[in-house]
Amino acid sequence: MPRKNITLGFIGAGRVGTGLASGFARAGVNVVAIASRKSASAQRLAKRVRGARACVPQEVADSADIVFLTVPDDAIEAVASSVSWRAGSACVHCSGAADLDVLQKAVADGALAGGFHPLHMFGEAGEPPGALAGCTIALAGPDALVEKLERLARALDAKPLRLPEGGRALYHAAANFSGAFVIALVQETIALWGKLGIAETDALAALLPLLRGTADNVEKLGAAGGLGSAVARGDSGTIRRHLDVLAKEAPDSLELYRILSLRTIPLALAKGTLKPAAAKEITVLLLSGSGEK
């Protein structure tokens, strides 16, 4: 599929729409039309994408071969149902969790339905060129459409991933553990350190190198090999002190600490630094809920 021979349109001009439309345009893919709930947003994005014009959703569907719905998940079905689709065109949502049944109106009109979800934390408008390079994009749809979507993913230097039918919700829920939930855990550390008078800016300055180093270790050594913690060392004394101080100073964090520590035990065993006897002792300690003997 030569990039010049296909036209793309976007309905939705938020972070995802902006990131994808800008990325495709830089890659030489022809983005021709952009619509948004707020016309000013569509106009702003159209100015960033050479050759694109701001218009209403129906005009996007009328002029583009593949239309990306980069709207909030809860709005996908309503937006898709508000448009008349051309037979042979494609309607593609960018949700990680929604299946293709939310595009049933497009299918009834004769269009192909697909999914194109970048596993990427989109930042503010104006991400640097190549921001999507190396990221995974989860695809769904009939073979003929997925082949085109794979080529579009590769045009962004991204890695296409085809999910089994019905698997999108599990894929997306699982991804939260390595994305949004990591941010929640960072905030947990900031809150706990705040009890010691450490400012958030200082906490972030200390934690970001740790996060990067952890990611680097996982990339080089795998999940088990990259693990470093009191559990991985079999250090029950330290774990006991953790449980005691959390029970006293931050009881709301105690259960989270216990759950996550228990989940690291199989990894530590796989790494080989935690012996079965120590694993049993630590499991009992964690299940007791505190470090008290």
- Our estimate of the beta-strand percent is 5-15%
Mean pLDDT, to the nearest integer, reads 94
Structural class: alpha/beta
Low-confidence stretches: none
* Count of DSSP-assigned helices: 13
Please explain how this structure is put together:
The protein is an alpha/beta fold and 293 residues long. Helix content is 53%, strand content 13%. It has 13 helices and eight strands. It has helices spanning 15-26, 39-48, 57-63, 76-81, 104-108, 143-155, 168-175, 180-194, 200-225, 230-233, 236-249, 251-271, 276-288, and strands spanning 7-11, 30-35, 53-54, 66-69, 90-93, 112-118, 136-140, 159-162. The chain has an eight-stranded mixed sheet with strand order 3-2-1-4-5-6-7-8. Helix 12 (251-271) runs antiparallel to helix 13. It is elongated, with a radius of gyration of 24 Å. The N and C termini lie far apart (67 Å).
